[in-house]
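Entry 12.
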Amino acid sequence: MSARNGIWTWTAVSAWIALTTAALVAGPVARRGRLPEPLASHWGASGVPDGAMSFGALLASVLVLWGAVAASGIAVLARGVRTRHQRGAAFSVLGAGAVFAVGVDLLTVWANLDVPDWRQARSLGWQLVPHLGLSALAGWFGWLLGRPGSRTASEPVDGTALTLGPRHHAVWVSTVSSRPLAGIGGGALVAGLATGAAGAWPVAVVAVLVGLPCLVLSSARVQIDELGVRTALGPLRWPVRRIRLAEIASATARTRSAPEVGGWGYRVLPATTAIMLRSGECLVLRLVSGRDFVVSADDAERGAELLNALLAERSAL
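Predicted 3D structure (C-alpha coordinates):
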Protein backbone atom coordinates (compact mmCIF):
# COMPACT_ATOMS: atom_id res chain seq x y z
CA MET A 1 0.00 0.00 0.00
CA SER A 2 1.31 3.44 -0.93
CA ALA A 3 1.48 6.42 1.42
CA ARG A 4 -1.41 7.96 -0.48
CA ASN A 5 -3.58 4.90 0.11
CA GLY A 6 -2.62 5.02 3.78
CA ILE A 7 -3.92 8.60 3.95
CA TRP A 8 -7.17 7.53 2.32
CA THR A 9 -7.52 4.71 4.85
CA TRP A 10 -7.14 7.10 7.78
CA THR A 11 -9.56 9.53 6.12
CA ALA A 12 -12.18 6.79 5.70
CA VAL A 13 -11.75 5.65 9.31
CA SER A 14 -12.05 9.22 10.61
CA ALA A 15 -15.20 9.79 8.56
CA TRP A 16 -16.72 6.52 9.80
CA ILE A 17 -16.05 7.43 13.44
CA ALA A 18 -17.50 10.92 12.94
CA LEU A 19 -20.64 9.65 11.18
CA THR A 20 -21.25 6.99 13.84
CA THR A 21 -20.82 9.56 16.62
CA ALA A 22 -23.27 11.90 14.88
CA ALA A 23 -25.81 9.09 14.50
CA LEU A 24 -25.52 8.15 18.18
CA VAL A 25 -26.32 11.73 19.20
CA ALA A 26 -28.86 12.67 16.52
CA GLY A 27 -31.24 9.73 17.06
CA PRO A 28 -32.00 10.25 20.78
CA VAL A 29 -31.91 14.07 20.54
CA ALA A 30 -34.45 14.08 17.68
CA ARG A 31 -36.90 12.10 19.84
CA ARG A 32 -36.10 13.74 23.16
CA GLY A 33 -39.64 15.13 23.55
CA ARG A 34 -41.18 11.67 23.24
CA LEU A 35 -39.00 10.03 25.91
CA PRO A 36 -39.60 9.84 29.68
CA GLU A 37 -37.14 11.22 32.22
CA PRO A 38 -35.41 9.12 33.42
CA LEU A 39 -35.32 6.40 30.73
CA ALA A 40 -35.27 2.64 31.15
CA SER A 41 -31.65 1.64 30.66
CA HIS A 42 -31.46 -1.93 31.90
CA TRP A 43 -33.63 -4.97 31.34
CA GLY A 44 -33.65 -8.16 33.42
CA ALA A 45 -33.51 -11.73 32.16
CA SER A 46 -37.30 -11.70 31.70
CA GLY A 47 -37.07 -8.69 29.40
CA VAL A 48 -38.75 -6.32 31.87
CA PRO A 49 -37.01 -2.98 32.57
CA ASP A 50 -35.44 -2.93 36.04
CA GLY A 51 -33.09 0.07 35.93
CA ALA A 52 -33.09 3.66 34.70
CA MET A 53 -30.83 6.66 34.17
CA SER A 54 -31.20 10.22 32.95
CA PHE A 55 -31.23 11.09 29.27
CA GLY A 56 -27.84 12.78 29.52
CA ALA A 57 -26.24 9.88 31.42
CA LEU A 58 -27.56 7.35 28.93
CA LEU A 59 -26.30 9.34 25.97
CA ALA A 60 -22.91 9.75 27.64
CA SER A 61 -22.61 6.01 28.38
CA VAL A 62 -23.27 5.10 24.74
CA LEU A 63 -20.69 7.64 23.56
CA VAL A 64 -18.13 6.32 26.06
CA LEU A 65 -18.76 2.78 24.77
CA TRP A 66 -18.27 3.90 21.17
CA GLY A 67 -15.20 5.93 22.14
CA ALA A 68 -13.57 2.84 23.67
CA VAL A 69 -14.30 0.80 20.53
CA ALA A 70 -13.04 3.57 18.21
CA ALA A 71 -9.84 3.90 20.24
CA SER A 72 -9.28 0.15 19.98
CA GLY A 73 -9.75 0.23 16.21
CA ILE A 74 -7.36 3.16 15.85
CA ALA A 75 -4.75 1.39 18.00
CA VAL A 76 -4.92 -1.74 15.83
CA LEU A 77 -4.70 0.30 12.60
CA ALA A 78 -1.77 2.34 13.91
CA ARG A 79 0.26 -0.86 14.27
CA GLY A 80 0.26 -1.40 10.50
CA VAL A 81 -1.96 0.67 8.22
CA ARG A 82 -0.11 -0.73 5.19
CA THR A 83 -0.70 -4.39 6.06
CA ARG A 84 -3.86 -6.19 5.04
CA HIS A 85 -4.18 -8.01 8.33
CA GLN A 86 -4.08 -4.91 10.53
CA ARG A 87 -6.47 -3.02 8.25
CA GLY A 88 -8.88 -5.94 8.26
CA ALA A 89 -8.78 -6.27 12.05
CA ALA A 90 -9.27 -2.51 12.56
CA PHE A 91 -12.15 -2.31 10.08
CA SER A 92 -13.75 -5.36 11.70
CA VAL A 93 -13.64 -3.78 15.18
CA LEU A 94 -14.94 -0.43 13.90
CA GLY A 95 -17.69 -2.03 11.83
CA ALA A 96 -18.98 -4.36 14.55
CA GLY A 97 -18.63 -1.68 17.24
CA ALA A 98 -20.50 0.97 15.25
CA VAL A 99 -23.43 -1.31 14.46
CA PHE A 100 -23.58 -2.54 18.04
CA ALA A 101 -23.47 0.96 19.57
CA VAL A 102 -26.07 2.35 17.15
CA GLY A 103 -28.24 -0.72 17.80
CA VAL A 104 -28.09 -0.17 21.58
CA ASP A 105 -29.03 3.46 20.98
CA LEU A 106 -31.99 2.63 18.73
CA LEU A 107 -33.33 -0.20 20.89
CA THR A 108 -33.20 1.95 24.01
CA VAL A 109 -35.02 4.82 22.30
CA TRP A 110 -37.61 2.46 20.79
CA ALA A 111 -38.31 0.78 24.13
CA ASN A 112 -38.86 4.15 25.85
CA LEU A 113 -40.70 5.91 23.03
CA ASP A 114 -44.03 7.52 24.03
CA VAL A 115 -44.25 5.86 27.47
CA PRO A 116 -45.13 8.05 30.48
CA ASP A 117 -42.78 6.26 32.89
CA TRP A 118 -39.63 4.19 32.40
CA ARG A 119 -41.21 1.24 34.22
CA GLN A 120 -43.68 0.96 31.35
CA ALA A 121 -40.96 0.73 28.70
CA ARG A 122 -41.27 -2.06 26.16
CA SER A 123 -39.64 -5.41 26.89
CA LEU A 124 -36.36 -6.33 25.22
CA GLY A 125 -35.36 -9.93 24.58
CA TRP A 126 -35.48 -11.52 21.16
CA GLN A 127 -34.45 -8.18 19.58
CA LEU A 128 -30.93 -8.74 20.90
CA VAL A 129 -30.44 -11.79 18.66
CA PRO A 130 -30.62 -9.94 15.30
CA HIS A 131 -28.77 -7.04 16.93
CA LEU A 132 -25.79 -9.24 17.78
CA GLY A 133 -26.05 -10.99 14.41
CA LEU A 134 -25.90 -7.71 12.49
CA SER A 135 -22.94 -6.59 14.61
CA ALA A 136 -21.06 -9.78 13.80
CA LEU A 137 -21.95 -9.41 10.11
CA ALA A 138 -20.67 -5.83 10.12
CA GLY A 139 -17.43 -7.05 11.68
CA TRP A 140 -17.04 -9.69 8.98
CA PHE A 141 -17.79 -7.16 6.22
CA GLY A 142 -15.26 -4.75 7.73
CA TRP A 143 -12.66 -7.52 7.70
CA LEU A 144 -13.26 -8.09 3.99
CA LEU A 145 -13.22 -4.37 3.25
CA GLY A 146 -9.88 -3.85 4.92
CA ARG A 147 -8.09 -6.79 3.34
CA PRO A 148 -7.58 -5.70 -0.31
CA GLY A 149 -4.07 -4.53 -1.12
CA SER A 150 -0.59 -5.84 -1.36
CA ARG A 151 1.14 -8.24 1.01
CA THR A 152 3.70 -6.98 3.45
CA ALA A 153 7.21 -6.74 2.02
CA SER A 154 8.44 -9.81 3.89
CA GLU A 155 5.74 -12.15 2.59
CA PRO A 156 6.63 -14.48 -0.31
CA VAL A 157 4.95 -13.46 -3.53
CA ASP A 158 6.42 -15.78 -6.14
CA GLY A 159 7.62 -19.35 -6.56
CA THR A 160 11.32 -18.81 -7.17
CA ALA A 161 13.78 -21.50 -6.11
CA LEU A 162 15.07 -21.43 -2.55
CA THR A 163 18.76 -20.54 -2.14
CA LEU A 164 20.77 -19.72 0.97
CA GLY A 165 23.88 -17.63 0.60
CA PRO A 166 26.58 -17.27 3.28
CA ARG A 167 25.96 -13.54 3.67
CA HIS A 168 22.17 -13.57 3.48
CA HIS A 169 19.54 -13.97 6.17
CA ALA A 170 16.50 -15.80 4.79
CA VAL A 171 13.09 -15.13 6.35
CA TRP A 172 9.74 -16.69 5.47
CA VAL A 173 6.46 -15.17 6.70
CA SER A 174 2.92 -16.37 6.17
CA THR A 175 -0.28 -14.96 7.63
CA VAL A 176 -3.56 -16.86 7.72
CA SER A 177 -6.84 -15.69 9.21
CA SER A 178 -10.37 -16.86 9.99
CA ARG A 179 -13.05 -14.35 9.06
CA PRO A 180 -15.82 -16.03 11.11
CA LEU A 181 -13.68 -16.08 14.26
CA ALA A 182 -12.68 -12.44 13.75
CA GLY A 183 -16.30 -11.35 13.33
CA ILE A 184 -17.59 -13.42 16.25
CA GLY A 185 -14.73 -12.36 18.52
CA GLY A 186 -15.06 -8.66 17.75
CA GLY A 187 -18.85 -8.71 18.07
CA ALA A 188 -18.74 -10.61 21.37
CA LEU A 189 -16.21 -8.22 22.89
CA VAL A 190 -18.27 -5.21 21.89
CA ALA A 191 -21.35 -6.91 23.36
CA GLY A 192 -19.44 -7.55 26.56
CA LEU A 193 -18.43 -3.90 26.85
CA ALA A 194 -22.00 -2.74 26.24
CA THR A 195 -23.70 -5.15 28.62
CA GLY A 196 -21.06 -4.45 31.26
CA ALA A 197 -21.71 -0.71 30.96
CA ALA A 198 -25.43 -1.43 31.35
CA GLY A 199 -24.79 -3.42 34.52
CA ALA A 200 -25.47 -6.92 33.17
CA TRP A 201 -22.20 -8.34 34.46
CA PRO A 202 -22.99 -12.07 34.08
CA VAL A 203 -23.78 -11.57 30.38
CA ALA A 204 -20.73 -9.32 29.97
CA VAL A 205 -18.39 -11.91 31.48
CA VAL A 206 -19.75 -14.66 29.22
CA ALA A 207 -19.41 -12.41 26.14
CA VAL A 208 -15.80 -11.54 26.98
CA LEU A 209 -14.92 -15.18 27.71
CA VAL A 210 -16.29 -16.11 24.29
CA GLY A 211 -14.93 -13.10 22.41
CA LEU A 212 -11.32 -13.04 23.60
CA PRO A 213 -10.39 -16.62 22.57
CA CYS A 214 -12.16 -16.17 19.23
CA LEU A 215 -10.33 -12.93 18.51
CA VAL A 216 -6.94 -14.30 19.63
CA LEU A 217 -7.39 -17.35 17.41
CA SER A 218 -8.75 -15.38 14.45
CA SER A 219 -5.31 -15.11 12.84
CA ALA A 220 -1.78 -16.43 12.99
CA ARG A 221 1.46 -14.99 11.61
CA VAL A 222 4.13 -17.65 11.18
CA GLN A 223 7.76 -16.54 10.74
CA ILE A 224 10.75 -18.78 10.02
CA ASP A 225 14.33 -17.54 10.33
CA GLU A 226 17.67 -18.68 11.70
CA LEU A 227 16.26 -18.58 15.26
CA GLY A 228 13.45 -21.04 14.55
CA VAL A 229 9.69 -20.68 14.17
CA ARG A 230 7.65 -17.86 15.70
CA THR A 231 3.84 -18.05 15.64
CA ALA A 232 2.07 -14.85 16.74
CA LEU A 233 -1.67 -14.99 17.32
CA GLY A 234 -4.44 -12.43 17.05
CA PRO A 235 -4.71 -8.83 15.80
CA LEU A 236 -2.14 -7.65 18.35
CA ARG A 237 0.28 -10.51 17.45
CA TRP A 238 0.09 -11.83 20.99
CA PRO A 239 0.43 -14.38 22.52
CA VAL A 240 3.45 -15.85 20.75
CA ARG A 241 4.54 -19.48 20.46
CA ARG A 242 8.30 -19.81 19.80
CA ILE A 243 10.04 -23.02 18.76
CA ARG A 244 13.84 -22.83 18.63
CA LEU A 245 15.72 -24.36 15.72
CA ALA A 246 17.36 -26.82 18.10
CA GLU A 247 13.93 -28.20 19.03
CA ILE A 248 13.01 -29.06 15.41
CA ALA A 249 13.96 -32.31 13.65
CA SER A 250 12.32 -31.65 10.26
CA ALA A 251 9.54 -29.76 8.48
CA THR A 252 6.97 -30.69 5.85
CA ALA A 253 3.94 -29.18 4.16
CA ARG A 254 0.76 -31.23 4.54
CA THR A 255 -2.96 -30.88 3.94
CA ARG A 256 -4.86 -31.19 7.19
CA SER A 257 -8.52 -30.87 8.19
CA ALA A 258 -9.81 -29.70 11.55
CA PRO A 259 -11.11 -33.15 12.62
CA GLU A 260 -7.62 -34.63 12.05
CA VAL A 261 -6.13 -32.38 14.73
CA GLY A 262 -9.04 -32.33 17.16
CA GLY A 263 -10.99 -29.31 15.87
CA TRP A 264 -10.58 -25.59 15.32
CA GLY A 265 -8.38 -23.26 17.34
CA TYR A 266 -5.48 -24.23 19.59
CA ARG A 267 -5.56 -28.01 20.04
CA VAL A 268 -3.35 -30.23 22.19
CA LEU A 269 -3.42 -33.98 21.51
CA PRO A 270 -1.18 -36.75 22.91
CA ALA A 271 1.24 -36.52 19.97
CA THR A 272 0.29 -33.23 18.29
CA THR A 273 -0.12 -29.55 19.04
CA ALA A 274 -2.06 -27.65 16.38
CA ILE A 275 -3.17 -24.12 15.58
CA MET A 276 -5.97 -24.78 13.14
CA LEU A 277 -7.66 -21.73 11.59
CA ARG A 278 -8.86 -23.39 8.42
CA SER A 279 -8.62 -26.78 6.78
CA GLY A 280 -6.08 -27.07 3.99
CA GLU A 281 -2.37 -26.36 3.64
CA CYS A 282 -0.41 -26.54 6.90
CA LEU A 283 3.19 -26.34 8.06
CA VAL A 284 4.02 -29.49 10.02
CA LEU A 285 7.07 -29.56 12.28
CA ARG A 286 8.44 -32.83 13.65
CA LEU A 287 10.04 -31.87 16.95
CA VAL A 288 13.04 -33.52 18.55
CA SER A 289 10.73 -34.58 21.38
CA GLY A 290 8.74 -36.72 18.92
CA ARG A 291 5.66 -34.46 18.89
CA ASP A 292 4.26 -32.71 15.84
CA PHE A 293 3.44 -29.00 15.69
CA VAL A 294 0.84 -28.16 13.02
CA VAL A 295 -0.20 -24.63 12.00
CA SER A 296 -2.40 -23.41 9.16
CA ALA A 297 -0.19 -21.52 6.70
CA ASP A 298 -0.22 -20.45 3.08
CA ASP A 299 2.80 -21.38 0.95
CA ALA A 300 3.77 -23.92 3.61
CA GLU A 301 5.98 -25.83 1.17
CA ARG A 302 8.31 -22.85 0.78
CA GLY A 303 8.44 -22.43 4.56
CA ALA A 304 9.29 -26.12 5.05
CA GLU A 305 12.05 -25.87 2.43
CA LEU A 306 13.64 -22.90 4.18
CA LEU A 307 13.40 -24.52 7.59
CA ASN A 308 14.97 -27.76 6.36
CA ALA A 309 17.75 -25.76 4.71
CA LEU A 310 18.40 -23.93 7.98
CA LEU A 311 18.44 -27.26 9.83
CA ALA A 312 20.91 -28.71 7.34
CA GLU A 313 23.10 -25.62 7.62
CA ARG A 314 23.05 -25.86 11.40
CA SER A 315 23.94 -29.56 11.44
CA ALA A 316 26.90 -28.89 9.13
CA LEU A 317 28.49 -26.45 11.60
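Annotation: DSSP finds seven helices and eleven strands in the chain. The helical segments are 3-30, 55-78, 84-112, 128-146, 179-197, 201-216, 300-315.
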